[in-house]
Amino acid sequence: MTDSDDAQPIYVTQPYLPPLEEFIPYLEQIWENRWLTNGGPFHQQFERALCEYLGVKHLALFTNGTLALVTALQALRITGEVITTPYSFVATAHSLLWNGIKPVFVDIDPNTLNLDPNKIEAAITPQTTAIMPVHCYGHPCDIDRIERIADNYGLKVIYDAAHAFGVQCNDGSVLNHGDLSVLSFHATKVFNTFEGGAIVCHDAKTKQRIDHLKNFGFVDEVTVVAPGINGKMSEFNAALGLLQLKNIDEALLKRKAIDARYRQALAGVTGIHCLLVEGEKVANYAYFPILVQSEYPLRRDELYQKLQDNGVKARRYFYPLISDFPMYRSLPSAAESNLPVSRRVSEQVICLPIYPDLSEQQVDYILSLIIG
Ligand code: T4K
Question: What architecture is domain 248-371?
Answer without folding.
Answer: Alpha-Beta Complex (3.90)
